[in-house]
Amino acid sequence: MNDPLVTAYQAREAQYAALRDAALAHTTQLIGEAGLKIHNITGRLKRPESLADKLRRKPGRYRTLEDVTDLVAVRVITYFESDVAAVSRLLEAHHEINWEHSVDKSMMHDPDRFGYMGVHYVVRVPHLVKQFVPHVTEPPQHYEVQIRSILQHAWAEIEHDLGYKSREAVPREVQRRFYRLAGLLEMADEEFMALDRLSRDYAETLPERVRDEPDSVFIDAQSIKHLLGVSPVRDLDEAVAAALGVPLLTRWPDPERPQRLATLLHYVGVHSVGGLLGELRRGRADILDFATRLLPRLPEAWLPAGGVRPGTALVNHALLRACANPSLNPQEIITALDMSGVLSAQQLVDSVLDAYAGVIGAAGPDPRHT
């Protein structure tokens, strides 16, 4: 590595590393403030040996380090191909783009080739970034931002690992398999985008469907998330909290709770929103009675939080159903509620059955007791 540009780059590597870190922080902040949901953002500094290889492959093309526009790169990996365009528009709005050296690779491939269809921007270093780079006589002026979807990234990494840097490098015997894989990846990208749209449409129509045709709505994480904020679930949760003299923790941060509640309800045989709502209305008094008997017996399971969490009514309803069916396995309930390590299976079983006996006035012991 005797090229003078490589030597100059090695002497200023700390400055380029500072630029990488500042550019990464700046891009992360922009995307976060825009509310865009992406997979990850990383920064990359070109290795001196990679620069030497680039200079050897393209002799005479680069006269100064400023001519090498990819010494510093920020890579944005999105979940969906459609998000690549959203990130691209955001960067264009907040940066001065060097269009001569920027490229949208989706415009470069033949229609029968998926290839690496990401976007490369060479951007001028913004003032917000420049202030974090050590002052030198000739500070770096540009860095690269690469934007890809997860599948485009996978293609690019595998293609690079195989050593195929261009279409002409692919042996003719291998090209057909590349084309077949290209079609599969393009279909996968489109299907993932379709799934994302369907998921968002499902969430948007849930309130109306729960109101008008609840029997057609399946119990899942999204429907439970909606139910936690409306009657009768919310009303019954508030009644349990009031009976115990504690607050209902409506802002409790637990994104996995709806899924756990859905799993629990499925286990005890509740599968439709309509069926659940009917049972909650008919069994309101028993659920409230059961909860106020059970929860004081298990303070370690909920009291450290300072109140009861949304969905408490659903948990107690499911436990009531489990009590009525001796064939159900208590360990499955502990797993669904994520209570492993908090209470032993037998502690939970004994406390639940005692509370259940109080509700129904049972005289004989349940075989699941210790």
Automatic annotation (TrEMBL):
Residues annotated as domain RelA/SpoT: 43-170
InterPro entries in UniProt: NT_sf, RelA_SpoT
Entries under Pfam families matching the protein: RelA_SpoT (PF04607)
UniProt cross-references to Gene3D superfamilies, sorted A to Z: Beta Polymerase, domain 2, Nucleotidyltransferase
GO biological process annotation, one example: guanosine tetraphosphate metabolic process
Entries under PANTHER family matching the protein: GTP PYROPHOSPHATASE-RELATED, RELA_SPOT DOMAIN-CONTAINING PROTEIN
Protein name: RelA/SpoT
